[in-house]
Amino acid sequence: MGLRRPHPDLKVEEFYRPGKERSVLVVGLPGIGGVGRLVADWLRELTDAKLLCRIYSRYFPDQIQVTDRSYEPLSYSIYHTENVGRDLLILTGGFQPDPTSTEAPYRVAEGIVEYVQSLGCRTIVAVDGMSEQKGIAVTSNKLDVLKKLVEAGAKPFRGRIEGVAGLMLGLIRLRDESICVGVLSGCRDVRRDEAAALRALRFIDRILGLNLSI
Predict the structure, then answer these.
(1) How far is the C-alpha of 44 from the C-alpha of 50, rounded, in Å?
(2) Count of structural domains, the chain
C-alpha cells in the first residue's frame, strides 16, 4: 500500500489495512530482561501473525541494517492476527529511540499511539521486566481493570516503566476512551530472562483469553 505519514514524526510503510475492530495492541520492546521483546516475538510466532507495517522515524538511531544483499533503515514492526478470537496487534523492535534525546521517545510514542488508534485500537498492553520484584505486577488507567488483573494473580506495580512502552501508557491515559495496561515480570537476569518472559506471556494469554499453545 506504500508509505503514509499518520504523524509528523513517523512514516509508516503499510502492507495492508485491517478492519477497524476494537483491537488490542501488545507492546514488546527492549527493556529489563528482554521480557517485552521476547513476549512479542513469541506471540507473533504462536499466533502466525502477519506483518502489517513498518514504522520509521527521524528519532530512531542513526544507523542502517545491512544484510548480504541489501540494507534498510531501522524500523519498528507491527504484526496483526485474528487467529486468537480477537483482533490482535503486536508492536516489536530491536531498539529504543535516540537515547541522547529526551524528546525522541515522546515523539515516537505519541506517533504510534495516534497511528494504532486510527486502526481501531482501544487497548494497549505494554510488557516489560522488573528487577526489584518477583512474580507478575500490573498497572492500569482503569481501576476496574486493575482489580480484575489482581484477581487473575498479579500484584499492583509501583515504580517506573521507562522507554516507549511506558510513555505509550502515559500518553494513552490522557485519552479516556482507551484502556492501558502494564504487565511486568520479575527478572533474575536483567540482560535476558526467558523464564520471566514466559511468565509474562502466560499471564497475557490468560487475561486476553488467547488460548495459546504454551
Answers:
(1) 8
(2) 1
- Annotate 71-132 with DSSP letters as a single string: EEE--EEEEEE-TTSS-EEEEE-S--S-TT-SSHHHHHHHHHHHHHHHTT--EEEEEEEESS
Tell me the CA distances in angstroms from 97 to 63, 69, 109, one per residue in order: 12, 26, 10
Q: What length is written for the chain?
A: 214
Neighbouring residues of 158: CB distance < 8 A, sequence distance ≥ 6: 137
Beta bridge partners of 116: none
Name the residue with cell 540482560: 191
Structure confidence by residue, pLDDT tens digits, 99-148: 788 899 999 999 999 999 999 999 999 999 999 788 999 999 999 999 99
pTM of the model: 0.94
CATH number, position 122: 3.40.50.10900
Angle at 169 between CA 125 and CA 11, to 5 degrees: 90
Which amino acid is residue 46, in one-letter code? L
Residue 95 · residue 74 · CB < 8 Å: yes
Domain contains 187: yes
> By the 8 A CB rule, do 26 and 89 touch?
yes
* DSSP summary character for residue 10: E
CA 77/CA 61 separation, integer angstroms: 15
Q: Pairing between strand 155-156 and 88-92?
A: unpaired
Residue at 65 is within a domain: no
